[in-house]
Structures are given as C-alpha cells and as structure tokens.
Design brief:
Layout (H helix, E strand, L loop, with lengths): L1 E7 L11 H4 L2 E3 L2 E10 L5 E8 L8
Antiparallel strand pairs: 1-3, 2-3, 3-4
Length: 61
C-alpha cells in the first residue's frame, strides 16, 4: 500500500528555486510543501519512505 501526506515547509526553510527539486520541496497555491510517501507491507510495517515536492502524485512513483 502507498499513502502520501503533505507537510508544510516554513518560508525560511525553503531552498532557492533552482534547488527545490533536489530538496523535495514544491510550491503550490497553499505555499511551499513536501509530501512524504510511505510504502508499507500487509502488517503496516514501513518498507520505504520517499520525499517529493508537495504537488507530486503517488501515481508517478
């Protein structure tokens, strides 16, 4: 199972525009954010965590 949660980033914690992709920080209408994607097994144990920009879709992973 894969789930994603959006985490807001403080305005001073956001990198320069050039570095945003490397830092997994995205800009949306609501501001700057990061999304945490978690893949878990059938017991709910974490298999993998991925950080992406806040507007990224789970379907792209």
């Amino acid at each position: 199972m894969v789930d994603g949660s959006i985490v807001r980033v403080h305005q001073h914690g956001a990198p320069k525009i050039i570095d945003r992709e490397l830092e997994a920080v995205g800009k949306s209408r609501g501001g700057v954010s990061t999304k945490v994607h978690a893949a878990v097994d059938s017991l709910g144990n974490t298999i993998r965590l991925i950080l992406t920009a806040g507007q990224a879709s789970e379907y792209e992973l």
